[in-house]
Design goal:
Shape: elongated
Mean pLDDT: 75
Structural class: mainly alpha
Number of helices: 9
Largest sheet: none
Low-confidence stretches: 35-57, 203-213
CATH architecture of one domain: Alpha Horseshoe
CATH topology of one domain: Serine Threonine Protein Phosphatase 5, Tetratricopeptide repeat
Radius of gyration: 31 Å
Length: 213
């Protein structure tokens, strides 16, 4: 006998293998094709959704519209929803609607997938709480962890918080720290905030030593 199979025997073996495995092979091919088509459809859907969100955001930025904002908020995965909420908060704050502005900022914090947008919203919310004298909430927000890019702004807001509570020396120290944190690029108004306190070589109450508890 020989180990070499004839063409007929090879054909019979192939038929047998196909009979046993053909269904699973075809199913695998179908799944592979379906996966490719499904991915392409998903990509097309996300692109269309992003374009729609971009258009809605452009409209919302020009003129605040609650219906448009609500539609954007349904697309919480899109950064445009968060940006639209920030814009709505800005417009509300400018028209004296602090509670509405706070609500929009809180929505952004709770829903945005972007960490930097969340931090911006948190700092803006802290600013609002300072202006409405909700000092504990403002302090809590300012004590959270932020990118070092916001160091100067955080120190400035801490200065505003101290000033709002008539803690003048601490406010001056915070403003000085904000100027130092800016790396020599402190805005002029920040120096004015410090100068307006009228203190020379301010020392924070937290820096004083040798005093009783």
């Amino acid at each position: 006998m020989t180990d070499l199979k004839t063409d007929q025997e090879k054909a019979e073996d192939l038929k047998k293998w196909w009979k046993e495995n053909g269904t699973s092979v075809m199913l695998g091919v179908a799944l592979a094709i379906g996966s490719v088509l499904g991915w392409q459809q998903w990509q097309a859907h996300k692109l269309a959704e992003t374009e729609e969100a971009s258009s809605l955001f452009a409209s919302q930025k020009k003129q605040a519209d609650p219906a448009t904002l609500a539609e954007l908020k349904q697309k919480t995965g899109s950064p445009y929803a968060s940006l639209a909420a920030l814009n709505a908060a800005k417009q509300a704050a400018e028209t004296g609607k602090e509670d509405q502005a706070k609500a929009e900022l809180q929505w952004t914090i709770d829903n945005t997938p972007d960490e930097l947008i969340k931090q911006v919203a948190s700092l803006q919310l802290a600013r609002l709480h300072i202006s409405t004298k909700d000092f504990d909430t403002a302090k809590s927000l300012l004590n959270q962890s932020y990118s070092t890019a916001y160091s100067s702004l955080i120190d400035e807001l801490k200065g505003d918080l101290y000033l709002a509570q008539d803690q003048i020396s601490d406010a001056a120290t915070a403003y000085q720290q904000a100027i130092q944190s800016s790396g020599g690029n402190a805005p002029r108004y920040l120096k004015m905030k410090l100068d307006n306190l009228g203190l020379v070589n301010p020392v924070s109450n937290h820096d004083k030593t040798g005093e009783g508890a």
